[in-house]
Structure formats: structure tokens, C-alpha cells
Amino acid sequence: MELDWIELIGFRCYPELRVEPAPGVNVFVGDNGSGKTSLLEGIGYLASLGSFRGSPDPSLVRSGSEQAIVRGEFVGRDRTLRVEVEIPIEGRRRVLINGKRPASRAEVVSQVPLVAFLPDDLDLVKRGPSLRRDYLDDLGAGLWPAAGAEHSDYERALRQRNALLRKEGPRADQPTLDVWDERLSHLGAMVIRRRLQLLDRLEPRLSSLYADLGERPERLTAAYESSSLGRLEDAGDEVRDRLAAALGERRRADMERRVTTVGPHRDEVVISIGGRDLRTRASQGEQRTVALGLRVAAYELLREEKGATPMLILDDVFSELDPGRSRRLVSKLPGGQILVSTAREEEVPLVGTRWAVRDGAVVVPEEDAS
Question: Among 131, 186, 176, 179, which residue's Cα sits nearest to residue 153?
């Protein structure tokens, strides 16, 4: 699907804005701080019901406003998807999909495949494991609606167990913990199974992309490290039983610490090049190439699974790449609607509609000049 139009009201720096992107390539050109990233963030929010910068909802509301409104329409071959979101400073947001409240976030994410390349993508391979877990879980939700629902159910059960532990600590009711442990082990095994399924499909693509994007030909591997079960290659029926046993073994410690220390929310994805841990024993060039490869691999998987080219956001990415990597990256991105931000137009090796971003406005430069 492609974005037909978007309106932002009280969102970030925009009092009010409407943009109708063209099919194909759209390049938004403006100085730093002009609102380019905020526009792309609004588009990403409309497609995923979340900020690709990881920002909490209240921070998206413009200073002096009580709420932000994001709405727009995506069009496909045989359907239109209208998304409307009201984001208040306080309280819960209100979401409508074609005029109706959705049962879950997955109703949007599964219908609008989108991949965002960001300047901070290097953190995906350099920083802590939560970012790599989020990468897998977000991609899984985009590929399979059930995966998003399973992960949401797991997080809900985890919050409930942690709430009990925080409140009661060593006095927590044992039969109630038994119920939550059973629930967490069941749902946790499902989350792990989805992640392993994804890694199995991602690893060969990522290894090939690593070579294609210009690094030396060393073997790349991606392994799943469970915090309680060790390295896993498959999630058979025994994973649920092992998780249940681990929760039982750690129960006394969890009660003392008042937090759940076992489960997929503590797991890690270890990426290695030639046997070297990418996070601690690789150059920044190697790390950046793998980070790009992770996004391209997600793009390819979504296109293959959905049978359609995903929307693509490139937020100030080309300023971080040398010309050779820029060309190789572009060669991996056939067709589809592409939304690019840049402060220097000459750095973008793509042909398409150019937009000028400044003073809270986004216009085609020819219109601006008239």
C-alpha cells in the first residue's frame, strides 16, 4: 500500500499540515530542525501506531497543544485504509481504522508494510539487546498478525506478574504466581518460536547482504541466546516446560527483587562476523553495514510475504554513507513509495519528487516559487 495523504495537527513542530506524497520517490529537503524527521515520524506513526524514534506518545504533542491528531489514507490495489489517531497529553489515545476501533495494533501493522532506515540504526547492533528484540518483534508483527497479538499478550501477562511482585514482594500469593507462571511460559514459548522462525529466514539474507553492501567476505551468523535456557536453535514443545521450570527456580529471587528475571524479555540476539561478536569486536564500518543489512532484509521479507513492495522511510541516511554504499543500498530497493529526508539534496542518489520543508510548511519547490 502507498500513502495517499496525511494530516498532522498539533504534532511535533506542526500546528497544521497536509501532505499528499507522490507515488514513487519523495525527497524532503530542509535545514536541520525544519521538521523533516517529524513529518516522516508522523507517516511512520500512521502506519505502525508507534514512533520509529521510540518516543512516548505525550512527547509527540506540540508544545501548547492538548492533543495531536494524525490521520491519513493508504491505498492499495483493491482497498483503502483510513487511519485516524488522537494523541492526548494525558490519558489513552483514540484510534479509528476505517471509522471503527481496531481490536489491536496489528490491524494496521499487518496491512501497511513499512521499513524505516534511521541515523540511529547503528544502535541496533551496538547497544543493548532490547533493540534487537524489538527489531524481531516489530518485523514479526508486520509479517504475521498473530505474532503481534502473541507478543502483546506476553507483555500484558508480564506486567501483571511484575505488578504483583512489586506490590507484595516476598509475601506474594503462591497460587496466583502459579497462574501467571503458567501463562508466561505458554506465551513466552510462542514469542521465542516466532523469533527463531524469523532468525532462520533472516540469517542467510543478512549474510548475503553483508557481502553485497561492501564488506570483506567473512561468515556472518545470528544466534538466539535465552537468558534462562542458553543458546536455542529451535523452539520445540520442551521450551514451554523449560521456561516454566526456570520461572519456578527463580521465583524466590523474583519475589525478593520484585521483578520477573526469566523470559524472552531478557533474551539476546548475538550477531557475529568471522566468529567475532559484532557488538564488541567489529569496526564501525562493519557495524553500519550489518545495521543496513538488517533493514534491507526486513524489507525483502515483507515484500516476499506480503506480495507487495513495502513503503520505505529513509531519514537522513545518505549523509552517513559513502557514495559506494549509497549506490549499493539503492540497488537493493526496487520500486514502491520511498520517503527520504535530507539537508543536502545532492547526497540523495534517487530521482523523484522534491519537496521543500521550512517554517512549518512542506511544498513542491515549483509551487513555492510561484
Answer: 186
**What digits encode the pLDDT tens for the residues 115-152?**
998 888 889 998 899 999 999 998 998 888 889 889 99
CB 154 within 8 A of CB 190: yes
Full 3-state SS string of 163-177 = HHHHHHHHHCCHHHH
CA angle 302, 344, 324 (to 5 degrees): 60
Distance set, CA 302 to CA 2, 83, 211 (Å) = 14, 21, 21
Picking from 142, 113, 25, the residue whose alpha carbon sits closest to that of residue 311 is 113
Q: Which residues does 185 contact at the CB level (< 8 Å), separation at least 6?
A: 240, 241, 243, 244, 247
* E strand segments, the chain: 2-11, 14-19, 25-29, 67-75, 80-88, 94-97, 114-117, 220-226, 230-232, 268-273, 276-277, 311-315, 338-342, 353-358, 361-363
Q: Is 232 helix (H, G, I), strand (E, B) or coil?
A: strand
Q: Which residues make beta-bridge pairs with 71? A: 7, 84
Q: Which three-class secondary structure state does DSSP give residue 178?
A: helix
Residue 63 has a CB neighbour count (10 Å cut-off) of 7
The answer to whether 118 and 317 have CB atoms below 8 angstroms apart is yes
Residue 222 CA from chain centroid, whole number: 19
Please state the length of the chain.
370
Q: Kindly give the pairing relationship between strand 311-315 and strand 338-342.
A: parallel
pTM of the model: 0.83
pLDDT, position 370: 38
